[in-house]
Design brief:
The complex is a heterodimer of chains A (314) and B (308).
Chain A lengths: L2 H4 L15 H13 L1 H18 L1 H4 L36 H36 L1 H17 L2 H12 L3 H11 L1 H15 L3 H8 L4 H37 L11 H9 L7 H28 L15
Helix pairs in contact in A: 2-3, 2-13, 3-5, 3-13, 5-6, 5-8, 5-9, 5-11, 5-13, 6-9, 7-8, 9-11, 10-11, 11-12, 11-13, 12-13
Chain B lengths: L1 H28 L3 H5 L6 H10 L6 H13 L13 H36 L4 H14 L3 H15 L15 H27 L2 H8 L4 H38 L5 H11 L2 H29 L1 H8 L1
Helix pairs in contact in B: 1-4, 1-12, 5-6, 5-8, 5-10, 5-12, 6-8, 7-8, 8-10, 9-10, 10-11, 10-12, 11-12, 12-13
Classes of the chains: A mainly alpha (314), B mainly alpha (308).
């Protein structure tokens, strides 16, 4: 009911529909790689994923081992004992090693939830745009209601009723995020289904499912991929923020967010245990925001850079 | 205009029913509502008494209708912890929360207009680009981490600001700063983009070619064209900031709605949870309707669109 409609122009690829083909996606990736933001973001993401995958080999200490003699040690380059590159936390655990392993869970949460949300959002957006009258009207009203309720409030209430559980949280997040996708693609679906090639497919007897999957989906994938990219970072942020309230990843598991939550209680004793995981989250979020920006330019070369047109997409 | 307002206000009723339904479903899904409503150490008799008193022994549909009707009269029952009406507790905490959210909303609007105008006037110069890169980087900084950093520097190291509480004005400096920066990044990029778009519009080009002073063109021709989407985004920013407050308040021990909600969760104070989520949703809807109405009033383009 807001921004998306009042902000003119620019919800992803609105130029003439292009046929889906391998060359099209290769062209998009080529454009992303050719732009400086795209190159930086892809290198950053590749490095982050690589670090997360090789975390077990890269750690300098056992990330869960509590060494009582080495609690709250400053980083080793500041004169801390025990060779902790980024210091140790109040339980004597190595912050550097925990960041590497915590990054893995954070990225996993971001990737899985973002992908699930994108699939749900794409499906509902397709249905809402294809069956504009009833399904579309109903879904857009539901979106209006959801818009009024901050997810943090839902997450908190959910934890009150069902107990804190990161899997449940991710599931609800995945179902909550569909509105962004649906809002963005619904009008695009409506426009696409009126184009000649879709009418042709329908008159030759293609089923609605076939029309939606084969003919309409390729034309709305652009905005979906852009939204997916930026939502990875956003979802990692949401998990981190709820971790601060004790509602995210539960011990003995840990993510970058839950590390921040632990460190927040002892900020006075060991600032390094809060500062460095936060830097990690910031890096991840910036990397995916940059990728989203580069993708937006790649799908829609006519637009200027830095995505100032539609904040709903950032 | 009146018809528009009536339609938008109808949305509140819709949202209220939706949120009540959501909460109703959440409670029923999570098990026996009577056990949830009872204090943690209640005996079976107490649970039974609660079941009868709250009508939980009645059919589900009757319960549902009763819940919706009660919510519409803002009756959420009494807090288990404090014995006060939940609605009253929420209303008492609303003012402190608004006091944290509204000034940063204004600050970030003023800041974003300055940054956005500056950057739009120098779209290809280094200073304009650098500002945009900076807002992009700040967009990635988690607001709760920023709050921790500020507490670390100004409360723990320099000891010039209190780390927690809402005793006096100085306690507001950190939350205000955090929320202002939180809003600034998106808003200034939006401002720059809208302004650059408006520069290409006919009436701005005409004003320029007539030789009107550039500052006048900017203030009287370009900015009014660019403003409506920025104002509409303020409504969304309000809800984003309020969500951030749910995290920031408990983090900084600030006694507002967010801290009340989180505290009620650990106390399993169900009526207060319901009352705060409900009020929050209605408040956010109201603010967005207000912003949309303002936008519609100041933007003749939208009015003519409706007339067609």
């Amino acid at each position: 009911m807001n921004g998306a409609k009042t902000t003119p122009g620019s919800t992803g690829s609105q130029q003439a529909p292009a046929p889906r083909s391998a060359s099209r996606s290769r062209e998009i990736m080529g454009r992303v790689w050719a732009s400086p933001t795209g190159k930086i973001s892809l290198v950053m993401i590749a490095a982050l994923v690589l670090i997360a995958c090789l975390a077990d080999q890269l750690v300098t200490h056992n990330p869960t081992a509590q060494v009582l003699g080495q609690t709250n040690q400053p980083p080793s380059w500041m004169g801390g004992e025990g060779g902790h590159l980024l210091g140790s936390d109040p339980l004597g655990r190595d912050v550097f090693s925990r960041i590497l392993v915590g990054l893995r869970l954070s990225l996993l949460i971001g990737f899985l939830t973002a992908t699930a949300t994108a699939l749900i959002g794409l499906t509902l957006g397709l249905l809402a745009g294809y069956y504009e009258r009833f399904v579309g009207g109903f879904l857009m009203r539901v979106a209006d209601i959801q818009f009024a309720v901050p997810f943090a409030a839902v997450g908190i209430a959910l934890a009150a009723f069902a107990g804190p559980s990161v899997v449940l949280l991710m599931a609800v997040l995945a179902f909550w995020g569909w509105t962004n996708y649906a809002r963005t693609i619904v009008s695009l679906v409506g426009r696409t289904k009126r184009l000649d090639f879709v009418t042709a497919a329908r008159t030759t007897g293609a089923s609605p499912v076939r029309v939606l999957v084969r003919h309409i989906t390729p034309n709305v994938l652009g905005p979906v991929i852009i939204l997916w990219s930026t939502s990875v970072g956003t979802l990692i942020l949401v998990e981190s923020s709820l971790s601060l309230l004790g509602l995210g990843v539960q011990p003995p598991g840990f993510s970058l967010g839950s590390m921040l939550a632990d460190a927040q209680k002892t900020l006075r004793l060991s600032w390094w245990a809060a500062v460095f995981p936060g830097m990690g989250i910031t890096l991840v979020v910036i990397a995916f925001n940059l990728l989203g920006d580069a993708l937006r330019d790649a799908f829609n070369p006519a637009l200027g850079s830095m995505s100032e047109h539609d904040p709903e997409l950032t | 205009m009146l018809a528009y307002l009536a339609r938008r206000l109808g949305l509140i009723v819709f949202v209220a029913i939706g949120v009540s339904t959501l909460l109703f479903v959440l409670v029923r899904l999570s098990g026996d509502a009577a056990t949830l409503l009872a204090p943690a150490d209640a005996s079976d008799e107490v649970v039974e008494a609660i079941r009868v008193r709250h009508g939980l022994d009645q059919p589900l549909i009757v319960q549902y209708v009763n819940t919706i009707l009660a919510n519409f009269t803002l009756d959420f029952g009494q807090s288990f912890m404090f014995g006060l009406p939940a609605t009253q507790m929420v209303f008492e905490r609303l003012a402190p929360s608004l006091w944290v959210v509204l000034p940063p909303l204004l600050f970030s609007l003023v800041g974003a207009l300055s940054i956005g105008v500056y950057a739009a006037l120098r779209p290809s110069r280094l200073s304009g680009r650098a500002l945009m890169v900076l807002t992009f980087l700040f967009d990635g900084v988690p607001y709760f981490w920023l709050a921790m950093l500020l507490v670390l520097v100004f409360a723990i190291n320099m000891q010039v600001l209190p780390a927690t509480g809402n005793a006096d004005f100085s306690a507001l400096v950190i939350p205000w700063t955090v929320l202002t920066i939180y809003g600034l990044a998106t808003l200034s990029r939006l401002t720059r983009g809208q302004l650059l778009d408006s520069f290409t519009e006919g009436h701005v080009a005409t004003a320029r070619s007539k030789g009107i002073h550039p500052a006048r063109v900017l203030l009287l021709h370009a900015l009014p064209t660019a403003l409506p989407p920025i104002l509409a985004w303020l409504g969304i920013q309000f809800s984003l900031m309020f969500s951030a407050l749910l995290i920031l308040e408990p983090l900084m021990n600030y006694n507002g709605l967010g801290a009340l909600l989180v505290g009620s969760v650990s106390n399993r104070d169900f009526p207060v949870i319901q009352a705060s989520v409900f009020s929050l949703a209605v408040l956010i809807t109201l603010v967005n309707i207000l912003m949309d109405t303002i936008v519609r009033t100041v933007d003749p383009r939208l009015r003519t669109k409706v007339a067609q």
